[in-house]
Structure formats: structure tokens, C-alpha cells
Give the backbone structure.
Amino acid sequence: MTKESKAKLSLARMGHKQSDLAIEKQKAAMRLKPTKTMYKGVRKRGNTWQARIAIDGKELYLGSFDNPIDAAKNFDYHSLRLFDDCYLNFPHYDYLTFEPKYRKTHDDFTKSA
């Protein structure tokens, strides 16, 4: 029995009918690449974790880190500096005291964009 059919069966037992869109989303989630992480802006490359951020449709490299948490915090730090309303991996973390590994300025973002 596939994961999809197990999910449908468990929903059917609860009296829910899953829409086609929900099924497609579930299938897509099962096909995630192993380089994906649970943190936005972070991906694994070899033995390191890279943080990247998108500015005007272009991706900017923020640095390589030993673990995904440091990379995610670096992503959050730069997101806060660039955007008024942004998604944070760690919304309750105090970024006023955070010291990023690489500090990008606004000029760094506009030059590469």
C-alpha cells in the first residue's frame, strides 16, 4: 500500500474526503529532494548548509554553515534587514544580539541583483 493510499484510507475512516489539490500537494511533499530542509532559505550542499535569499527574483548567497540552524538564523537576520513583512524560521529569537557570519549590506544585494 502506498503512502497516498494510506493517507486516503485514514481520511476516509475519519469521514473526510480529500480533494484532488490536497492529494497533489501531498504527492509533491513526498517527492522533496534530500537536500531540502525544514528551514526556509537553507539547503544542504555536500557537508555544509548554505543560506540563500531571493531579492527581486534573483538568489543571493549568504554563506555556508556547519549546521542548518546557523544557516536559518543567518537567513532570518538578512530577511529582517531587507523586508518589512517576512517569514522567520525562528520568530522568537532575539536578532538584535545576533552576529551573522557574513554581514551583507543593502549595496551587496542591489549590485548582484
